[in-house]
Design brief:
The complex is a heterodimer of chains A (about 100) and B (about 100). Helix content of chain A is about 45%, strand content about 25%. Chain A is of the alpha+beta class and about 100 residues long. Chain A has a three-stranded antiparallel β-sheet. In chain A, helix 1 packs across helix 2. The longest helix of chain A has 20 residues. Chain A is extended, with a radius of gyration of 19 Å. By secondary structure, chain B is α+β, with helices and mostly antiparallel strands. In chain B, about 45% of the residues lie in helices and about 25% in strands. Chain B is built from three helices and five strands, in the order ααβββββα. In chain B, the strands form two sheets. Chain B has a three-stranded antiparallel β-sheet with strand order 1-2-5. A two-stranded antiparallel sheet of chain B has the order 3-4. Classes of the chains: A alpha+beta (about 100), B alpha+beta (about 100). Chains A and B meet through helix 1, helix 2, strand 1, strand 2 and strand 5 of A and helix 1, helix 2, strand 1, strand 2 and strand 5 of B.
Chain lengths: ~100, ~100
């Protein structure tokens, strides 16, 4: 089972006592603020969690994986995520205990 | 945008909540997301993206300072895959705005 926006809203309802509509709205707005920032070319740094950075990729030759025909992959801007040290450490410690 | 700027911007848009509530909410959400990943559970947010864990098998590494070989254990790393709406908006944004490093 994956964590979704529904679970996040539920958590705000339980932990902060926001009503369901407020909780849902806050969750939606949070992801929209992240998109707005990245869309405007501004990276996002959430200390303890990680950074969303932007990378400008030059045009490069590629292939259609289905047909195998050569095609040019156009220049584009992409988002990358780099987990912060705190998150990395927690994930590494957690992974040992859930033994995945 | 930093975490505190995110909180400020959200507080402006959600005028019916106090700044303190927004701050607590942002912290709760990031804590919940970190905890999920630490427990091996992926995160899926439509239109934003998904976070999952990728397995990295153990390997022999080197201490870059001394050059001696060290065994690096298995580990899991967080992987983020941007969702379609985020991907498209960021790329469209690139067309009309200066580059982030320029």
């Amino acid at each position: 089972m994956a964590l979704t926006k529904v679970d996040m809203a539920e958590c705000l309802f339980d932990e902060l006592g926001l009503n369901k509509r407020e909780a849902r709205e806050l969750v939606d707005h949070l992801f929209e603020e992240l998109r707005l920032s990245l869309e405007s070319g501004e990276p996002v740094k959430l200390s303890g969690f990680g950074n969303f950075d932007l990378r400008d990729k030059a045009e490069r030759p590629g292939r259609n994986p289905k047909t195998g025909t050569a095609a040019t992959i156009s220049a584009r801007r992409v988002v990358t995520f780099r987990p912060g040290i705190k998150l990395k450490t927690r994930v590494e410690a957690g992974a040992r205990s859930f033994g995945k | 945008m930093t975490k505190s700027e995110l909180i400020d911007r959200l507080a402006v848009k959600l005028g019916h909540l106090t700044h303190r509530d927004v701050e607590l909410a942002v912290r709760s959400m990031l804590e919940l997301m970190s905890r999920s990943l630490a427990e091996g559970e992926r995160i899926e947010v439509r239109g934003f993206g998904s976070f999952s864990l990728r397995f990295r098998p153990s390997r022999m590494g080197r201490n870059p300072r001394t050059g001696s070989a060290v065994a690096l254990p298995d580990k899991h790393v967080v992987h983020f895959k941007p969702g379609r709406a985020l991907r498209e908006r960021v790329d469209r944004g690139a067309g009309r705005l200066p580059s982030p490093d320029g």
